[in-house]
Amino acid sequence: MTFHTFQTIGQLQSSSVIRRHPANPLLAPKDVPYGPAMVFNAGVTKYEGKYVMVFRNDYGNAAEETIEPHSTTNLGLAYSNDGISWQVQSAPCWSWNDEEVIRVYDPRLTVIEGRCYMCFAVDTKHGLRGGIAVTEDFNSFEVLSLSVPDNRNMVLFPERIGGKYVRLERPFPVYSRGGIDRFDMWMSDSPDLAYWGGSKLVLGVEQVPFANDKVGPGAPPVKTEKGWLTTFHAVDLDPSRGKNGWEASWKKRYTSGIMLLDLEDPSRIVGMAKSPLLAPEAVYETSGGFRNDVIFPGGMILEDSGEVKIYYGAADTVECLAMAHVDDLVRLCLEGR
Ligand code: BMA
To answer: What CA–CA distance (Å, rounded) separates 190 from 129?
Structure first.
């Protein structure tokens, strides 16, 4: 049973409001002293006067392209004074493998009322779960909740809304969405970060003109006068694509979209740009990586100057930064361009 007509998307360009940082990639495997082959999909926030980054490390032999990256993932830690040059801690900050858990990855950081929370994906022997932990030192993490499978890409809003904690998330309903990837963005709320309910659909994949496969949350939202500004990842699949990275075949492309959610009811979309904010174009996004043409936003910081820093994993191999002015981003969403 298939509900949707499949249409390929064609060429995509980044918005003209976006500037990639000239120092990109900000973090690459060579910057990390314990030998990962891929360093990407980081969560970034400001905490106690510093920029903090928790990033994902995957391992293997990149030079031989024989990488089995997903077998030994762990998380790394870096600090920065300016959000651009990073000091990497000499050892990973977290890995979780036991009888049931295979790995944790794709961390997202949100400070709420002075405490730093980390959402993360967990591969387990019984499915993919979304986790939320709290940390004080970024080296020990107290897990507060784990969803039922399959769910991941969770991000927390930086304050309670209507008295409740709120998260965006991306469940994977396979049977009921035609037996193929056709995955949407949802939200849930919680009185205590442990028990989640009130789940609502936020963004269906069919609402995004540059996606034909799936969409999911990107970086945790930032607050503006016009609404919660938030990135999302949007995926298009083209069966005619072949080898595009270290894998034998990679047929997907990941872009970043941008939208505004209602301040009081974040399940309501106030506006969304109809074209991607960031599409793979720079050399570190389109070549030389494990999976080329992947942009995966995970950190967004609104500076007092109005500059928005957007941190994203590129080609599942390096971590990068793009900037834009908050007014331009809000305008893109409201104009729906
Ligand atoms: C998604 C996640 C991300 C990854 C992306 C592209 O499904 O696994 O961690 O960056 O695929 O490979």
So the answer is: 17
